[in-house]
Amino acid sequence: MGIVRRRSTASVDRDIPAPPDAVWDVLVDIAAWPIWGPSVRSATLRDGATELGLGVRGDVWTAVGVRMGFVITEFDPGHRWSWSVAGVPATGHQVSVTRAGCRVRFEAPWWATGYLPVCAVALRRIEKMVSDPREGGES
After folding, report:
1. Is the pLDDT of residue 130 over 90?
2. What's the per-residue H, E or C state across 42-92?
3. Closest by alpha carbon to 47, among 34, 36, 56?
4. Which of 96, 104, 124 is CA-nearest to residue 11?
5. What pLDDT, in 10s, does the model give residues 108-120?
6. Which of 5, 77, 91, 123 lies 20 to 30 Å (CA to CA) from residue 26?
7. How far apart are CA 52 and CA 37, in angstroms?
8. Phi, psi angle pair for 117, to nearest 5°
């Protein structure tokens, strides 16, 4: 795992020995967000949307119960999605193929680098979920 700071963003990543598709599925499954995301209590999509995609809107409830609207601002299926929450650019989520599985990267705006430790926890939880399906609530 590493933390990288670029001009406008900072990121944290983790190599996960799992198929990239399995990790992507966890990242775009809003029912899974509270399992891997320490700051998420729940999420819903708006306007009849059933899955994430560019321009899809929804609501996310924080761990302390505050509801905020979101919109997906970037979406490259199987590889990357980003969003704005409450009108503010938020995290980017990226999956890339490696020899041993995949590398998952979360990016945050430079002014939100304090959020990267939360993202690191999320990456560990995602690895656990794809390594042990019982972590995702399956039996």
Report:
1. yes
2. EEEECCCCCCCCCCCEEEEEECCCCEEEEEEEEEECCCEEEEEECCEEEEE
3. 56
4. 104
5. 998 899 999 999 9
6. 5
7. 16
8. -60, -35
